[in-house]
Amino acid sequence: MSTNILRTADGWWVVRGDRAVPVDTKAVTTAELIADRGAVREAARSADTGTPVADLVALSPVTTPCRVVAQMVNYRSHARDSGFTGDIPPAFFRKASGSVSGPHESIVRPPHVKFLDYEIELGLVMGAPLPIGAVVEERDLSSYVAGLVVTNDVSARDVQLTKTQFYESKSYPTFTPTGPWLTLLEAEDFAHLLDLRLKLSVNGELRQDRTLADMIVRPAQALTLLARFQTLDPGDLLLTGTPGGTALKAPPKPVEKIGALLPPAVKWKAFFKSQARNPHYLHQGDVVTATIATPDGRIDLGEQRTPITDAK
């Protein structure tokens, strides 16, 4: 069975229900904690009644610096929302690891960003090196991936679209809330990945709700494609795409064709004027809630709650 790990300023904890038991480890980084699975198992078996989880302040269970890589348009529902038809070529981009933040920290909207969007994503946390040229089969996944985390690929759409710039638009500080748990998996748990359901709500309104069965490129294939040009190390993080339901959606095809004929400045002015009427973008005071779990609770990555705050 999977084991949920909480990280605080005081160290690492195994979560057991509503209580947490400290892990007796010298590990400081996520990679070091993954390498000390013996200490994790010892804490999981401990007779210690533990500390109430509610009394602990969770940090991101993925420590930085690390590589943060993400897949683009990797759910069929998101592809439809984005106006894609036919085959979707696999694509990756990088995020600055400085964007990683805790599961209950505020997401801070920079002053120049008007269209702030959410993207719940399953994060894969590497447990072993992924070398160039690696071919990862489904049966090999547990040899490379140690665990899973809830992530939110927060996006400044006005930066992303006008500059065609993924790195900047998704890398501002607090733009990758991560956690609350690092869910370490056993080999047999990987057979249940497609049952994982991703759900994201804003102020209690459900916006995204899909299982991994909606994925276009699944984790083993994604790692194989990534290994053509990118190495990964233990503790690195791969975000595996978001389902449909984000605030940003492609305009109707006739509108898109007309827009393509306009000068860029005119096109974007018209597009963002229409987007200003879209109530689904994030604003100060909103609260984003994200969960990922299987229906039977065998794998449960916990609940992430992040308020939106405008930069001072």
UniProtKB/TrEMBL annotation:
Entry keyword annotation includes Metal-binding: yes
Keywords linked to the UniProt accession: Hydrolase, Metal-binding
Family: Belongs to the FAH family.
GO biological process terms, semicolon-separated: small molecule metabolic process
InterPro entries in UniProt: FAH (IPR051121), Fumarylacetoacetase-like_C (IPR011234), Fumarylacetoacetase_C_sf (IPR036663)
Residue span(s) of domain Fumarylacetoacetase-like C-terminal: 68-307
Annotated protein name in UniProt: Fumarylacetoacetate hydrolase family protein
Name of a matching Pfam family: FAA_hydrolase
GO molecular function: hydrolase activity; metal ion binding
Classification of source organism: Bacteria, Bacillati, Actinomycetota, Actinomycetes, Kitasatosporales
